[in-house]
Amino acid sequence: MGVQKELAVKKRKLSTTDKIFYAVTYMIFALIAFICIYPFYYLVINTISRNDYVDLGLVMYKPIGFHLNNYVNIFKLDNVMNSAFISVSRTILGTALTLIATAILGYLFTKEHMKHRKLLYRMTIVTMYFSAGMIPVYMNIRMLGLLNNYWVYIIPGLIRVYNMVLVKTFIESLPASLEESAQIDGAGYVRRFVSIVFPLSKPILATVGLFSAVSAWNSYMDTLLYITDSKLYTLQFTLYEYLNQATAIASSINSMTDMSMLDRATQISTTSVRNTMAIVTIIPIICVYPFIQRYYAQGMMIGAVKG
Predict the structure, then answer these.
(1) pLDDT tens-place string over residues 85-127
(2) Which of 14, 39, 82, 136 is deepest in the core (most CB within 10 A)?
(3) How far, in Å, CA of 281 to CA of 56, rounded?
(4) d(Cα 266, Cα 268) in Å, to the nearest integer?
(5) Is residue 125 in some structural domain?
(6) Residue 168's domain is classified under what CATH number?
(7) How many CA atoms lie within 13 A of 119 on its CB side?
(8) Domain range spanning residue 253?
(9) Whole-prediction pTM value?
(10) What are the φ and ψ backbone dihedral angles of 244, each rounded to 5 degrees?
(11) Which residues does 226 contact at the CB level (< 8 Å), separation at least 6?
(12) pLDDT in tens, 186-215
């Protein structure tokens, strides 16, 4: 009750200038939020509206003639479901293994008595600024036998140096007394890492997990460079290929549909193909964000600044 009274008093004490300032601030942020959200909303309503109205540019603020035929037709395309499975599995498995590997490496680099720690750390940091280039990397991937191999999606990106630095800095900010007390009780490095460091690192690991998941989900260049077997195509690469053939795909889908059941409202078009493909690739990764949003800001701030 006391807090509520204080807030009420403060609210009553707002001057006219303060009220104007708050009103203008809220309007600015509302405008920014609208600018950020509307393009995505526009895509969504255009995928579930009458396709003939969409082609004419008549769908702007709300759906017209609701239907889900665009999504049904897209998922009927060859290899889309298999590609979706590849993308989902590489995102989940790749993110999990990346978190484990990044956390372990970051933890090791916090140990000052680790042999050659400074040299190894500097060698690792150098890779952030210098790259061998596309051709040497391709030759390395080929020599490792990862061409047309599912593990080409996982192993090359197992460690991101920037993410490792964030994790290392976060671990260094944890109270050293926690590990020291566990060490006195006889706990080794593995026990201390699993029981103390890893659980306390949830904020920064959630941040790194988001980075890794978004990167893995959106990636299609590794498929383009290293994969020729269509069974290993990711969803993004498959839809990227279809996106470049949107006109032909629209004609193909319409030709496979019973013409007696087809009308202008649901007849798929080049625009509807492109819009639907964009939404199919965006929605899954957006659904991940709300679950880790509460850790995101905390992890970035603590992991980016020592102390």
Answers:
(1) 999 999 999 999 999 999 999 988 988 888 888 898 888 888 8
(2) 82
(3) 25
(4) 6
(5) yes
(6) 1.10.3720.10
(7) 4
(8) 69-307
(9) 0.76
(10) -75, -10
(11) 138, 141, 146, 147, 148, 149, 152
(12) 888 888 888 888 888 888 888 888 888 888
